[in-house]
Specification:
The protein has one domain (43-178). Helix content is 34%, strand content 14%. The chain contains 2 helices and 4 strands, in the order ααββββ. It has helices spanning 11-62, 98-106; strands at residues 116-123, 143-150, 164-169, 176-178. The chain has a 4-stranded antiparallel beta sheet, covered by helices on one side. β3 (164-169) and β4 form a beta hairpin. The chain is elongated, with a radius of gyration of 24 Å.
Length: 182
């Protein structure tokens, strides 16, 4: 009696294929995630540079930078609801108070909803500011510093320490990052 061999795959062959696919996926997923992570932070980079340009234009016209926050710390971010859990978008709403008026006076208004909350602090020579990374604000001259707070990893947010902070200032025309959670 002749037995004909069936044309299927053995269990061992299928397991080897699954292992190979798993290894390839483990290598490929981080590579494909890099552009996604960059897209999450491209907003803050573009808008901080826009704020920087508007501060320089304001100084050229009025002789000093505009202190949008109204205080000498970084507690008054707008929109106040950003960043949020899940790293979702929040409509740009600077408010109708003095801070909202200052944002309008600066001429800053994103074209769409944002994922980061923004703060701009500025001062005269000799005026100091609290809560900024060392060297961010050069207080020997007119100065400004701006920070974008974002919940890049999408987890719970209980304070500024839980956020990624991107910053730029008049003394450091280079984008910096504090507590980047990715």
């Amino acid at each position: 009696m002749n037995r004909r061999k069936s044309g299927g795959f053995t269990l061992l062959e299928l397991m080897i294929v699954v292992i190979i696919l798993g290894v390839l996926a483990a290598i490929a997923v981080p590579t494909f995630m890099q552009p996604y992570q960059y897209s999450k932070t491209s907003e803050v980079q573009a808008l901080l540079r826009d704020i920087a340009a508007k501060e320089e234009a304001y100084k050229a016209e009025f002789g000093q930078y505009l202190n949008v926050s109204g205080t000498m710390d970084f507690s008054t971010r707008r929109p106040a609801a950003a960043p949020k859990v899940g790293f979702g978008f929040v409509p740009w709403n600077p408010g109708s108070d003095a801070v909202g008026t200052a944002w309008s006076q600066l001429g800053f208004a994103p074209q769409s909803a944002v994922r980061f909350g923004y703060v701009v602090v500025a001062g005269l020579p000799g005026v100091t500011v609290s809560g900024v990374p060392t060297g961010l604000a050069n207080t020997n001259d007119h100065w400004w510093a701006t920070v974008g707070y974002g919940n890049v990893d999408g987890g719970p947010v209980s304070g500024a320490g839980d956020c990624s902070q991107y910053y730029i200032s008049s003394s450091q025309n280079v984008m910096g990052v504090v507590n980047d959670q990715e």
